[in-house]
């Protein structure tokens, strides 16, 4: 390992090391080269296939990771064409000499199928007045469809609490059979804690691209385990959301979705956090944000309002995270007539019907992470009905719920 590390250090040159790690577009967040998966000896290869993020009616983010520092772009076009090219530009600079790519395709047509492939050209030497390119590698052609802003229906699949068990992705996705779905939602605790880039690739990105993610986007919200470990801060460089933040909202068809990042389960001053979390104020910030969203016409007019968040504010004990979520969000969800809340966290699946004095909407909790406890949640909404089925990993249906439009 030390040889690889030295190779890598030589390759990127020590002076440019931090910036050269190529993480995101802003200030580099990773400051330990051991945390990245790049190994010079492995040559010029892709470390991940492309994965789609933050879909909209006119844009799509495409992420992928290379082993070497590159100039990378996406070739794409309507139907099966690849007649357009996109790369990222920031402050007059085309993103280059990086490995973790996030290229946003913009000005796309709504409800339209596109083909695309990713291309990465190695930068062998980056001198101030002489840049030397190496070989170019090209990914397979994949397709995606932009969101239909007029969609009358939407369906999506939810997985939660995978906890570093990469085989679970394909096993759970199989439970859907051949039924169509618009996207996948990952409802937190995909990992036990964040260690390094290799973990992100091996335990989430690759199992998702092997199953669906090069052609169908996924959205992700952190659980309380994604906030732990030395690589926790880098997560933002490998995934994005419609807002660019960990909490966000979006409308798809008849559903207005609100995604809340519920943070940690214990108080901020718990010794295990060593003084480096501040989730109370973050949750309050989200409650204020939720209240603003709830004033919008889109929220009010949508046939259905669904909240997705990792820690359920009921049925998950009485630790601080649960109780603080209950204090902040329970009154808002009732006041603004949320139709359904989807959670994980407890590792015990359940469907909890509305309960007077507590919550006027159903709370659905997906299970995990061991065999026999894992679930795939299938959600579908039409103009008249929001319906859900929860399938256990042996294929049996263990929960369902239907909300009729008011
Ligand atoms: Fe959790």
Question: What does this protein structure show overall?
Answer:
Helices cover about 20% and strands about 30% of the residues. The chain is of the alpha+beta class. It has two domains: about 1-145, Immunoglobulins (Immunoglobulin-like); about 155-405, Metallo-dependent phosphatases (Purple Acid Phosphatase, chain A, domain 2). Strands 1, 2, 3, 6, 7, 8 and 9 form a seven-stranded antiparallel sheet that branches. A six-stranded mixed sheet has the order 12-11-10-19-20-21. It starts with a helix and ends with a strand. Residues about 1-30 have low confidence and may be disordered.
Write the layout of secondary structure elements.
Blueprint: H1 2-12, H2 17-20, E1 51-53, E2 60-78, E3 84-86, E4 89-90, E5 93-94, E6 96-105, E7 113-127, E8 130-138, E9 142-145, E10 154-159, H3 167-174, E11 183-186, H4 197-211, E12 218-220, H5 235-238, E13 248-252, E14 255-260, H6 279-293, H7 297-301, E15 304-309, H8 320-335, E16 340-343, E17 350-352, E18 363-365, E19 375-381, E20 385-392, E21 397-404
Parallel strand pairs: 10-11, 11-12, 14-15, 15-16, 16-18
Antiparallel strand pairs: 1-2, 2-3, 2-6, 2-7, 4-5, 7-8, 7-9, 10-19, 13-14, 17-18, 19-20, 20-21
Helix pairs in contact: 3-4, 6-8
Bound molecules: fe (ii) ion.
Fe (ii) ion binds next to loops.
